[in-house]
Amino acid sequence: MRLDKYLKVSRIIKRRTVAKEVADKGRIKLNGILAKSSSDVKYQDILTITFGNKILEVRVLDIKDSTKKEDADKMYEILSETRVNS
């Protein structure tokens, strides 16, 4: 599944256009390598996402084309959430 779609379906990022923008600005790493919005996300991949002053690291646990809001957080596991003081 495409990275931007995965971020939207899992609700890590609310909108696909925003997910695409974040990825294309070089703020997302997939298994330690800079990722594009079209990068392929697979089971057990590690995503590192930089949001302003926060770095979120998650492991992909499930890939679905659509999901309910209540089940979205079961698609990933948060490994770390770090605040960066600028």
UniProtKB/TrEMBL annotation:
GO terms for biological process: rescue of stalled ribosome. It comes from the Bacteria. GO terms for molecular function: ribosomal large subunit binding; rRNA binding; tRNA binding. Pfam families: S4. The keyword Amino-acid biosynthesis does not apply. Signal peptide: none annotated. Keywords: Protein biosynthesis, RNA-binding, rRNA-binding, tRNA-binding. Residues 1-64 form the RNA-binding S4 domain. Gene3D superfamilies: RNA-binding S4 domain. InterPro entries: RqcP, S4_RNA-bd, S4_RNA-bd_sf. Belongs to the RqcP family. Associates with stalled 50S ribosomal subunits. Binds to RqcH, 23S rRNA and the P-site tRNA. Does not require RqcH for association with 50S subunits. Key component of the ribosome quality control system (RQC), a ribosome-associated complex that mediates the extraction of incompletely synthesized nascent chains from stalled ribosomes and their subsequent degradation. RqcH recruits Ala-charged tRNA, and with RqcP directs the elongation of stalled nascent chains on 50S ribosomal subunits, leading to non-templated C-terminal alanine extensions (Ala tail). The Ala tail promotes nascent chain degradation. RqcP is associated with the translocation-like movement of the peptidyl-tRNA from the A-site into the P-site. HAMAP family: RqcP. This is RQC P-site tRNA stabilizing factor. It comes from Pseudolactococcus raffinolactis.
